[in-house]
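In these records, each integer encodes one residue's backbone shape. Here is one protein:

___
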Amino acid sequence: MWKSRLFGATAAPTRPFIPDGVRVYAIGDVHGRADLLDQLLVRIDEDLKEHPIANAIHIFLGDYIDRGPDSAGVLDRLIRRGQTHQTLCLKGNHEIYLLEFLENPSILGIWGQYGALTTLLSYGLKPSLKADLGEQTELAATLSQTIPHSHVQFLTGLPVSFTCGDYFFVHAGVHPNAPLANQREDDLLWIRDDFLCHEEPFEKVIVHGHTPVREPDVRANRINIDTGAYATGRLTCLKLERDEIGFI
């Protein structure tokens, strides 16, 4: 595990801090890779065993479904993890589509561009690549009967952001022109260029995913930990404790 003090004395007047006695494990976009999530949770458990702490918070940054092969399995694992560990799962833009599809089957064409077919397959459905409205309606009805109630509850209860110490955790990012307390949900789930190109400090350091990068991108005002797990096989976990960071 690489570990260092966050940024450095020359990067900012003071280093961002996590409250004493708290450790954060922040995990980037999983996108249906239950296998990588299993491996990462083992590594987190090993780290907790080697370095116990009373208050360890797991923060998942959204986009649990689509693209990878086992979206249903990912949700199962996140729900189970929340039963044994302090876990906070944030909403990603992909989670919106699954819930919307149950109410409005015609969005399958749009959702399909974001990896819907693998999600439907993970629930045992057999979607057509070019489903007409009748097939879309039938798929939505079948998914509604197939998807566990616990998955629907999980997806409908996801918050869009979380603050801990000097850090603000969110799926996509924030709009530079709005205070953190007044952000639009659409920006928190979808924003890219306006946020990514902003080099001035935010109110807090923004920890986010949504935009894949080869390696974790650590900057003075934000940290991107979406390393494209579904395509690269690398699921990133950021470890924050006091004024130090690490990746495991």
Summary: The CA atoms of residues 2 and 246 lie 5 Å apart. The chain has one domain: 2-92+158-247.
